[in-house]
Design a protein that fits this description.
Layout: E1 4-10, E2 14-20, E3 26-33, H1 41-58, E4 66-73, E5 76-78, E6 83-86, E7 94-96, H2 98-106, E8 110-114, H3 115-126, E9 135-140, E10 145-150, E11 153-154, H4 186-189, H5 191-202, H6 209-217, H7 221-245, E12 249-254, H8 260-274, H9 277-282, E13 284-287, H10 294-306
Parallel strand pairs: 1-4, 4-8, 9-12, 12-13
Antiparallel strand pairs: 1-2, 2-3, 5-6, 6-7, 9-10, 10-11
The structure holds zinc ion.
Zinc ion binds at residues 167, 177, 179, 181, 184, 186.
Length: 308
């Protein structure tokens, strides 16, 4: 019997859930705010159990029809042990055996993983990376992360912590980063850095990235310069990765990725002009195919891969 999967995407602001049918389509969606449950681990685990069970009922299914539950979390997660090491934006989540706790509560197989790895699985199986053996899935936002598919497999690293592209140092004398390092990629292209750059270049403190996008569309020279500078920083950070990993596709997702028009061409040009010639000629840049559903669809891929 082909089975369904419940996918859960835990974010610092919202938690999204969905039931995915055997062909990979989301048939039921639900979401709730994280904050009311963030004060205690048990509250959040209880809310997750309740919502997972409710979504199965809403989909008109019973537990026998569910292959498992896949959960993406924003932080360090030990996929093999089902253990949440640390979630920087949800207090109290350090050292939680989420897999075994939830399995006991809901009596279904549970798989947990880092959220960016789960998004990468979604893009690789059904999205912009379909059929691609070597790809990087870059997510831009407050944090900057990446998932790697190498030789057709998700690359996890020794502790499932590989892919922290945002914390690759680009300047040993650069600004201090939240991770403890200096001059990390994220300190140049994370949202905080981009907002500071926009305020400076536009001469308008507090300007939002959306405003600079609208102004750029109207041909505002300062706004165009801002996006070109941002894209140059992103491209520069990717040069070493292109040389190191020789990817075929770089998928870009996250908050500012909808702004393809002002970003992708400069990112590409920067990489081509700086990367080694063979690697620099081999890659394509694509926008992520999934937005809100990426975490749910990726959770489906996680569960079905684990049960192959
Ligand atoms: Zn860092």
């Amino acid at each position: 019997m082909k089975k369904y999967v419940v996918g859960v995407d835990v974010g610092g602001t919202n938690i999204k859930l969905g039931v995915v049918d055997p062909s990979g389509h989301v048939i039921v969606r639900n979401s709730f705010a994280t904050k009311p449950f963030a004060s205690s681990r048990i509250k959040l685990i209880t809310a997750l159990s309740r919502e997972i069970e409710a979504s199965i009922v809403t989909a008109g299914l019973n537990k026998k029809q569910i292959a498992g539950v896949g959960i993406g979390l924003p932080g360090l997660v030990d996929y093999e042990k089902g253990f949440v090491r640390f979630l920087p934006n949800i207090p109290g989540w350090r050292g939680v055996y989420l897999k075994s706790i939830l399995q006991k509560r809901i009596n279904l197989p549970v798989f947990v993983d880092n959220d960016v790895k789960i998004i990468t699985l979604a893009e690789s199986k059904f999205g912009a990376g379909r059929g691609v053996r070597n790809l990087i899935c870059l997510t831009l936002g407050t944090g900057v992360g990446a998932g790697l598919i190498l030789n057709g497999q998700l690359y996890r690293g020794e502790d499932n912590a590989a892919g922290e592209l945002g914390h690759m140092p680009l300047n040993e004398h650069g600004p201090r980063c939240n991770c403890g390092g200096y001059g990390c990629f994220e300190t140049y292209v994370g949202n905080r850095a981009l907002l500071a750059l926009a305020s400076r270049l536009m001469g308008r403190p507090g300007i939002t990235l959306e405003e600079t996008f609208t102004l750029a569309q109207k041909g505002n020279k300062k706004a165009l310069l801002f996006w070109k500078t941002a894209a140059g920083h992103i491209g520069n950070g990717l040069v070493g990765i292109v040389n190191l990993l020789n990817p075929h596709v770089i998928i870009i997702g996250g908050g500012i990725s909808h702004n393809e028009k002002f970003l992708f061409r400069t990112i590409r040009k920067t990489i081509v002009s700086r990367a080694m010639s063979l690697q620099g000629a081999a890659f394509k840049i694509k926008r992520a195919a999934f937005k809100d559903d990426a975490g749910i669809i990726g959770a489906y891929v996680l569960v079905t891969n684990a049960q192959k």
